[in-house]
Design a protein that fits this description.
This is Cysteine-rich CPCC domain-containing protein. There is one protein chain. The chain has one domain. Helix content is about 30%, strand content about 25%. It is built from one helix and four strands; from the N terminus they run ββββα. It has one helix at about 45-64; strands at about 1-5, 15-20, 25-30, 35. It has a four-stranded antiparallel beta sheet, with no helix packed on it. The protein is elongated, with a radius of gyration of 17 Å. It starts with a strand and ends with a helix. The mean pLDDT is about 80. Bound molecules: zinc ion (ZN).
Length: about 60
């Protein structure tokens, strides 16, 4: 478990700890309750859709 003293972006003085649950890794502030799921908030379904979209746009860009 990661632990960052006084690195909360919301309250500035809160201690942030990193952990993970069924939705993926996240950071949370002890003092104000701020939670950051980073870029891993996506569900499996959304992740799949995102992947397809990324491939599509990349392909489109490559042809131009
Ligand atoms: Zn905080």
């Amino acid at each position: 478990m990661m632990y960052k003293i006084k690195s909360c972006p919301r309250c500035q003085v809160g201690d942030v700890f990193g952990s993970s649950d069924e939705y993926g890794a996240y950071e949370q502030c002890f003092q104000c309750g701020w939670v950051n799921y980073g870029d891993k908030v996506l569900s499996q379904k959304e992740a799949e859709a995102e992947k397809l979209e990324a491939v599509g746009s990349k392909d489109r860009r490559g042809r131009r």
